[in-house]
Write a structure and sequence with these properties.
Layout: E1 2-13, E2 16-27, E3 33-37, H1 40-50, E4 59-70, E5 72-78, H2 93-106, H3 111-127, E6 130-136, H4 141-154, E7 157-161, E8 163-164, H5 177-191, E9 198-200, E10 203-204, H6 212-225, E11 229-233, H7 237-246, H8 253-258, E12 268-272, H9 278-287, E13 290-293, H10 295-300, H11 308-313, E14 318-320, H12 332-349, H13 358-370, E15 387-390, H14 402-412, E16 418-423, E17 426-427
Parallel strand pairs: 1-4, 5-6, 6-7, 7-9, 8-10, 11-12, 12-13, 13-14
Antiparallel strand pairs: 1-2, 2-3, 4-15, 15-16, 16-17
Helix pairs in contact: 3-4, 4-5, 5-6, 12-13
This protein binds zinc ion.
Length: about 425
């Protein structure tokens, strides 16, 4: 057993931080938290009662005056758009896809190119302290396999999606339904260990990119192999109108996925949900579909402000996503700040619902998002120990409280303050680039 000592902060509940000064978190050999306490003796005694070895085998690692917090989870990101991060920000969604996104993704037919880009992507995920993610690769099975191997090599968690698409795109980014199924099955054979940190996730790009046959095949794969599902939902009004035209029998965009078994029949995360309301919202609640809120992307691609406060009040699970390259920042701490600021814009227009607070943004990025991967994102007993050690001494020029120190790190800090990263109990060294 290992015991880590530091100032410990996390969000068991969304509206408040747990703050434990000079405290301890105990982690067992399987990488799970057995307890968190200000008192070492009771913590170790408790843990050793439940599991062996006992106190004499306990290693205590003292991080001194540093902060220990749960690691970040990125619930929506396109690994294959990493080269386009921070460029082509002057376009709206559909022309942006045609002119920038699809040409870049075409390059991933070349596994050499894919490896070069994906190495950088995995490295930078590590750098910003994101230990789990849901990512889109491309249609290319072999490059997708490269990305999965890189995450495995790094020891970080990722649900990786080979992208399904066969309409409204160039021929080079289109695959037959049979090829898509075969490609998935070869990845599933290699990676579908239910306890694995890296697993495939069924990823129809979005309704406009997939024929009914492809959507049906995606739903069947998810059901047959018990795989999670990710896609995009209600991001843009033009897109919603197009979905209605393509799937005329659907009663809302979410229903168009639901008809194919892609809306919560297995754990599902949908990015954006800017225009989700009424029926779609009810369906998401019934099916526990998670929202991946991507505020930077919603700003850059000028879609709109997602009603996150409403989703939280309605009890929908919500996580945060960087959505590279619609979003420009990979750093989930920055995404928290944008989420709060976006909600303040929403509040300025409509005072009916309060804006998001820091603890709510932190909770969305950690415990709420982490629930998609199992018990991840908190330091409560039973949770997998995914953690970051923050050395914020360069941000402290006066006596700040621990909570103020965390707030300053979130608003002012960056990866330079992240001193250690842990995923499932293991310290994760810097991946090779
Ligand atoms: Zn996206």
């Amino acid at each position: 057993m290992k015991v880590y000592k530091a100032h410990i902060l996390f969000t068991k509940e969304r509206n408040r931080f747990e703050v434990l000064e000079n405290s301890y978190v105990a982690v067992d050999g399987n990488g799970r938290v057995t307890g968190v306490s200000t008192d070492l003796t009771s913590l170790v005694a408790d843990a050793s009662e439940r599991r062996k070895p006992g106190f004499e085998d306990t290693e205590i690692i003292d991080f001194g005056d540093r902060l220990l917090i749960p690691a970040m989870n990125d619930m929506h990101v396109h690994a294959a758009q990493y080269r386009n991060q921070g460029i082509a920000m002057d376009m709206e969604l559909l022309p942006w896809l045609q002119n920038y996104t699809f040409p870049e993704e075409t390059k991933y037919a070349d596994t050499g190119y894919a490896e070069r880009m994906y190495r950088r992507f995995v490295h930078d995920m590590w750098r910003v302290g994101t230990m789990r993610n849901c990512t889109f690769a491309t249609i290319h099975t072999e490059s997708t396999r490269v990305l999965m191997h890189l995450f495995q090599e790094a020891g970080m968690g990722s649900l990786v999606g080979k992208v399904g698409m066969n309409r409204n795109c160039t021929e080079k980014l289109s695959e037959s339904v049979e090829q898509m199924v075969q490609g998935y099955e070869s990845l599933i054979t290699e990676f579908n260990n239910p306890d694995g940190l890296v697993r495939p996730i069924i990823t129809p790009r979005f309704i406009p990119s997939c024929t009914p046959e492809m959507l049906r095949a995606c739903g069947e794969l998810a059901a047959k192999y018990h795989l999670h599902v990710q896609s995009h939902l209600s991001e843009n009004k033009e897109e919603i109108a197009l979905v209605q035209k393509l799937e005329p029998e659907s009663t809302c965009y979410g229903d168009a996925y639901d008809r194919y078994g892609l809306f919560g029949q297995t754990p599902t995360v949908m990015a954006h949900c800017v225009f989700t309301e009424k029926e779609e919202l009810e369906l998401m609640k019934r099916r526990s579909v998670m929202v991946a809120h991507c505020p930077t992307s919603n700003l850059n691609v000028t879609t709109g402000i997602a009603p996150i406060r409403l989703f939280l009040d309605e009890g929908l699970p919500v996580g945060l996503g960087s959505d590279i390259s619609g979003g420009h920042s990979l750093n989930i701490f920055q995404i928290m700040v944008y989420a709060i600021q976006m909600s303040k814009l929403h509040y300025q227009r409509n005072h009916a619902r309060a804006f998001l607070t820091l603890s709510e943004a932190f909770w969305m990025a950690t415990k709420s998002a982490g629930s998609f991967f199992g018990q991840v994102g908190s330091f409560e007993p039973g949770y997998e120990f995914d953690a970051l050690v923050i050395d914020d001494h360069d941000l402290n020029h006066d006596n700040y409280s621990l909570l103020e120190r965390l707030e300053r790190f979130i608003y002012l800090g960056d990866d330079r303050q992240i001193a250690h990263r842990f995923c499932r109990g293991k310290e994760i060294p810097e991946p090779k680039q």
